[in-house]
Amino acid sequence: MTTTPSAPPAATPDAAMLEAARRVERLAEHGPTVHGPSVTAVIAVGAVLLTLAVPVIVFGERWWPGPVTVAVLGTVLAVRNWFVARRHHTLQPFRIAADERPFAVLDREQRQRSWRQITGREPVSADSAPLVRAFLQWQRRSSRVAAPGLVALGAVLVGSAWGLALSSGDVWLLAFLIVVAVLIGAMGAVEARRAERVLRSLPDSSPSTDRSTAPATGPEA
Fold first, then answer.
1. Contact 25, 207 (CB under 8 A)
2. What is the Rg, in whole angstroms, of the alpha carbon atoms belonging to the chain?
3. Distance CA 17, CA 190 (A)
4. 60-91, pLDDT tens digit by residue?
């Protein structure tokens, strides 16, 4: 009697890759959990303190309303951004909790391969597509919620540097901040185009995790 060899078992997706994709999909949808003070709150407090110093710096100067107005506008934006982020649960933590870090469950080779695919240096494989897609969506979400705070802090710094320029005559700090702002804007545009290119190149794949997970709660500030 002859027997027909049985077919080999179907390959199952790597459990670590599935868990990493699940974690990053949750981050893309809900953002990281914030425990204690957030980056958003620290930016708001720092903006207030810097703005209080600007009138002292420009006291008695002829053009004092300019830097004071810029710094005050930056502070208003920073404080408003904190209130909005707290209401919509988009505060930014200083450190992502260990149980929410996507790459923590991957080995070194998987992390390197995934990062090469995320940065567009390697074609995205079908098993990595959910992770890469969710990671780029998380990057986009993080950039969107961080932008108002960075703009606010930049305005306060420019107002402070402007005040120093009026009081001391040195404009190098103001010029440096403007150059840095231009470079950050250019780098952000390049990064956005790269992410869009990688997203367009992704193969079709079904979602690997259940997106109905409710956001974790914790003390936020």
1. yes
2. 23
3. 28
4. 777 788 889 999 999 999 999 999 999 988 99
